[in-house]
Write a structure and sequence with these properties.
The chain is of the alpha+beta class. It contains ten helices and ten strands.
């Protein structure tokens, strides 16, 4: 059971009919826009639940990854691969673990949607938060590196790398709560008193001391590529929800894994973490705070309530 998501979502498959691209047009564009690109070109599609179709581009000398908008009419900022390209282009020169970006195509006539091409990072994508295939020491080291990687992202001076207009700094939670409340009300089919109570409670009780950083928006185990043999993150994937925001939104969303029930995915709830070698929730908070210059996180329950509200919406 524990390997079901691993098997279903890892690796590549033939390109689905509905996701086929004009390979000749793509090859011409790659030759004109990606340094050292040399065909012939073969396309595969990655398995997994990406909302942006993602392809492996194979040439005799090198492998690349292509991510494109789904096509069709999109909500503003939804699936915005141009934003993904911008953030990884800013982060890559800092040494933060993201794939090297090569080129962005905003001409939808090439493959039917905006897309970008980046380096193909070879490594491990794991789905089961218990890391059953690894030793106790390896589990500990991987979790510590995941925490350190997120802290490193939050410590980057976003203005210094040209991302001062990547989002609106300040009032992050107020804007998030307002946005999700409106979305919820628009799709509401029955009154749920607990949701109404949260819509009232959350904006009145936002903790003080907000900071701003680049936030990933969906930091979790299966959005990371780990080194094949070393316990470290070599690439953070799927930046489509990234923006400027309060880093505690990012960190406490990740921390929800410690309370979500274990079902073979990232949730750790109910597991004997000490026996597995995985840091406890308290240790995880302490590690993150030590690396981001905090004394601790007050009001953790508030952040969990906010994250649960967001997931419910």
């Amino acid at each position: 059971m524990s390997n079901a998501p691993q098997d279903a979502f890892t690796g590549t498959k033939p390109v689905e009919e509905r996701h086929r691209l004009d390979e000749a047009a793509l090859a011409r564009w790659l030759e004109a826009n990606v340094d050292d690109f040399t065909g012939p070109l073969t396309l595969h599609q990655f398995k997994g639940g990406q909302s942006n179709p993602t392809y492996q581009l194979v040439t005799p000398a090198k492998k690349y990854v292509l991510r494109k908008n789904p096509g069709g009419k999109l909500l503003p900022s939804a699936h915005a691969v141009d934003r993904e390209y911008r953030v990884i282009s800013a982060l890559h020169p800092t040494g933060f673990p993201v794939a090297q970006p090569y080129a962005l195509c905003t001409d939808e006539s090439v493959v039917g949607a905006i897309f970008y091409v980046m380096d193909m990072i070879e490594g491990r994508v794991l789905w089961n938060g218990a890391l059953p295939e690894l030793s106790k020491a390896e589990r500990r080291a991987i979790y510590e590196n995941k925490i350190a990687t997120l802290a490193r992202l939050h410590n980057i001076d976003y203005a210094a790398i040209g991302l001062s207009d990547y989002g609106k700094p300040g009032n992050y939670f107020a804007r998030q709560i307002d946005r999700w409340s409106k979305q919820y009300k628009l799709s509401e089919t029955e009154r749920i008193s607990e949701m109404d109570a949260l819509i009232d409670f959350l904006p009145r009780t936002i903790p003080a001391g907000e900071r701003s950083s680049v936030v990933h928006g969906d930091y979790r185990l299966d959005n990371l590529i780990l080194h094949d043999s070393e316990p470290r993150v070599i690439a953070v994937l799927d930046w489509e929800l990234s923006t400027l925001g309060d880093p505690l939104g990012d960190f406490t969303y990740y921390l929800m894994n410690w309370v979500m029930p274990h079902d073979g995915r990232a949730g750790l709830g109910g597991l004997d973490l000490e026996a597995l070698g995985i840091p406890t929730q308290e240790e995880t908070v302490a590690l993150y705070c030590a690396q981001t210059g905090r004394d601790g996180i007050d009001d953790l329950d508030w952040y969990f309530a906010h994250n649960a509200f967001r997931l419910a919406c």
